[in-house]
Amino acid sequence: MRDQTRADLHRFAIWMDRRLKLAYFGGRLVEGGSERVANEWRAMDIDTRRGIVARAIVLGGAIMGGAKILISIETFIAVMLAFSGGELTLHSGNDDPGMLAILMSTLVGLLVSIAISLLFLRPQFAWFVSGTPADDERRMQVQVIPARVVYADLVGWLAAYVTYVLVSGAQPVFLLAMLVAFMLAATTSACLNYMFIESAVRPLVVLALGGRSMRFAMHGVRERMAVIWLVSSAVPMVGMVTIIVGRALDLVPQVHDNFDWPIAFLAFIALASGARVVGLVGRAIRDPLNEMSTVVEAASDGDLTQRVAVYDSSEIGVLQDGINGMLDGLEERDRMREIFSRHVGVGVADLALEHDGELVGSNTDAAMIFVDITGSTSFAARRDPRETAVVLNAFFSIVAEVVAEHGGFINKFEGDAALVVFGAPEPMDNPAEAALAAARELGEALGEKLPLEWGMAVSYGSVFAGNIGARTRYEYTVIGDPVNECARLSDRAKEGYSPVYASGAAVDRAGEAEAGRWRRVDRVTLRGRAEPTEIFAPRDLLVRAEPPSLGSVLADLVKFARPRERPQRVAPKEQ
After folding, report:
1. Which helix (H) or strand (E) holds 400?
2. pLDDT at position 133
3. Fewer CB within 10 A of the terminal residue: the chain, N end or C end?
4. Is the CA virtual torsion 10, 12, 18, 21 positive or negative?
5. Are 464 and 420 in contact (CB under 8 A)?
6. Domain extents for the chain?
7. What stretches pass through the bilayer (predicted)?
């Protein structure tokens, strides 16, 4: 039993492998579609590409030959029924078109069609095997492959009819009837071959286009609808009308019984041919629509990286290219929005987009952190500007990382200083507490990672937060006495016992747990203010370390060395 199951699985695996190979040439493509197949072809070596070309020739010739033979048999039966009065006979004589002659002529026509098709396709196969990028002329030649194959097919049917005339020895009336029959058969064959080849060469078109745009339709959807009409309606109806007219002119015998077999057979051909062509045309439209739908759904879910394979030569191809252009625009929009957010902050960017860039703002309670590097001016004067930028970027990177963890907004970088806002533009439950916690953590991080001397201050109060400037150029900022107080406190922190100071208003507004981490160290009237300010400092950052020389900053920066310690100074007692 197990051996039988294993054998069945082996046969199934072989069948699936054949299905995958056939998927390269017509039929429904496997998962990934034409784009996946084209990507696989790009990675193949020359020998593998030659193998694909050989399989394409064999499979394409077999399918075209089978279709031509089937259509020829249908043509023979229809003509035979018409000239026998509805009786199905296989005898040869002057009163029937001759099945052997039809088969011989069909074989000649098939060979002619294959030869001309290979003549058309040889340059495209050579380009594919070479693996070189396609130029504009090559892209055009690849896109018109289906039309070239149709031309070859029509020439083959012409050769088939000429062969039939030469070998059949039929009477003129039969030659005229076979001319009409071969014309209808050629129309059906050309339409079916066009739809098959158009589907089969999609990966090759993707490979040739290489992501380039398709700005116009070479073969419209209207032509495909015309194919459906020709195969399912026009050809059978013309055949029926020809039989009826032939009977009226006594060129075609009347039926011998009450059932009109010739007309019924043509109706059956109409149904069968209609089903075949509707399947091909439906797939030619359905498959690209499904691919576009998948990409659009991914874009609606936020994935803008997927693209549609552009291969269709109709308006659908223009739509495929248009969707890719739309996705490029959306991706560029998101990229610009991300860059915009980096420049002004996510909250400010959202506010600007929400209010369409209007000059908006309001009074709000907010907390601020102002941090400034000590001695950066003299440092920059003695150093290359690029070296100064390296130091500042490292400093601000630490600031940004800590501030983001506590929900703050970096309002601006001003040279060697940064202004951070809590509570605007996005409101917070307790901005003062968040700012105090961020200041403590930032003080520890800067002391550990960056050998620089700096001063930092925290303040809290009512400020105006909004856009300031002209309608043509403005920026989001905060204005008010707490902002000035914060800047003055940071100057005192540069020379104080602690590198981090906070105003009494900020500590009073914080929760009990956070306020307990701060200690009052002074009470002063800051420059430019009438009221005195209670000054607090973190209990674990009351004593600063000996600062390193600014000349060693760049060397120590890559090592993230701790500052050198010196004997501690005694902090003032709590007042």
Report:
1. helix 385-405
2. 83
3. N
4. negative
5. no
6. 44-318, 353-557
7. 52-79, 99-121, 149-167, 173-197, 226-249, 261-282
